[in-house]
Design brief:
With about 110 residues, the chain is an alpha+beta fold. The chain has helices at about 15-20, 65-70, 70-75, 85-90, and strands at about 5-10, 40-45, 55-60, 80-85. A hairpin with a 7-residue loop joins strand 2 and strand 3.
Length: about 110
């Protein structure tokens, strides 16, 4: 896993990231918690500007990246965290370009 790797989620069906993610997690949280299962992934949706293009969705790959992306001083507080099955993120290579099973942190690392 590359510590500086940044994987963006971009739904190919034209929906906004939070709408696509809400299909799998109807209760996103403001305060993140690292998934307890290796079958799950955490995705942060945050506001970066105005309008529909002012939102980005970042797949959180490691606890260190979660700590960095959760910093309200660096990234503001307008964000939601969704838990999604990793397999859903890996189904379509266009959904999260560059994402592979090896991209995720594991306890063996």
């Amino acid at each position: 896993m590359n510590e500086n790797q940044r994987i963006m989620l971009s739904p190919v069906d034209g929906t906004l990231p939070e709408a696509w993610l809400s299909r799998f997690d109807a209760n996103p949280t403001l305060l993140p918690q690292w998934p307890l299962s290796d079958r799950m992934a955490l995705v942060c949706v945050r506001e970066i500007g105005e309008g529909p293009d002012g939102v980005e969705a970042v797949v959180v790959l490691s606890p260190e990246q979660l700590k960095e992306i959760s910093d309200p001083v660096k990234h503001g507080i307008t964000r939601l965290f969704f838990k999604v099955q990793r397999s859903k993120l890996l189904e379509d290579p266009e959904l999260c370009p560059g994402l592979s099973p090896e991209s995720f942190w594991s306890q063996e690392d």
